[in-house]
Amino acid sequence: MVYSQQAFKREQNTLEKNEAVKKSQQLRAKIFGCAHDAEKETQGMQKKIKYHLIHYTTEPIEKYESRGRLNPHTPKVIEGYRIIDYLIENKVVITEVLRKKCRFLLGTNQLDETQLPSMAILKVSVPKFL
Predict the structure, then answer these.
(1) Phi-psi region at 68: left, alpha or beta (left = phi > 0; alpha = psi -120 to 50)
(2) What is the 3-state secondary structure (H, E, C) of 113-130?
(3) CA–CA distance, 9 with 15 (Å, rounded to integer)
(4) How many domains are there within the chain?
(5) Residue 129 per-residue DSSP state
(6) Which of 23, 35, 45, 77 would bridge 58 by S-S if both were Cys, CB 3.0 to 4.6 A apart?
(7) 12-36 pLDDT, tens digit each
(8) Percent of the chain with pLDDT strictly greater than 90
(9) Residues 21, 19: Cα–Cα separation, whole Å
(10) What is the mean pLDDT of the chain?
(11) How far apart, in whole angstroms, are the C-alpha atoms of residue 100 and residue 103?
(12) 21 in helix, strand or coil?
């Protein structure tokens, strides 16, 4: 089994550029008709995102009924709901993925250690890592 620092860095960069941030921004920009729809959409998105956990609250969007100069007694109407969320990295899943992606196995059919030692396999198979 061989550990590759280059593969570790490459995979770490890939996980940092995750789609979760983009999807979270899209979710924040969307206006929902009711709070239940907003929660349902967020829970559906949580199933799609592997490496983050979503913590959220729904907030009503209030507008005044009429335009123009308002008096102090003008009531507000709820126009829709939006999601206020923040993402937390799921460290357990991320470390598990990184551990799997940065290691690989080298094998050969040559069982005689004298003809092909372990270091020779490394030099032949993976010259750029040594």
Answers:
(1) left
(2) CCCCCHHHHHHHHCHHHC
(3) 10
(4) 1
(5) G
(6) 35
(7) 777 776 777 888 888 888 999 998 9
(8) 8
(9) 6
(10) 79
(11) 6
(12) helix
Query: Is 35 within 8 Å of 81 (Cβ atoms)?
Result: yes
Tokens at residue 50, please? 């592997």
Task: Tokens 């969007």: give the residue.
Answer: 61
Residue corresponding to tokens 């032949």: 124
As given in the structure block, the two tokens for residue 44 are: 């559906």
Look at residue 114 in the predicted model and tell me its pLDDT.
74
Where residue 50 falls among pLDDT bands split at 50, 70, 90? confident
Range of the domain at 77: 2-129
Instruction: Grade residue 125 by pLDDT with cuts at 50, 70 and 90.
Output: low
For residues 103 and 86, is the Cβ–Cβ distance under 8 A? no
Length of the chain: 130
Sequence-ordered list of residues with C-beta below 8 angstroms from that of 110, at least 6 positions apart, any chain: 116
Q: Which residues contact 91 (CB under 8 A, 6 or more apart)?
A: none
- Identify the DSSP state of 127: G
Tokens, residue 81:
């709901």
Element (H, E) at 70: none
Distance CA 38, CA 32 (A): 6
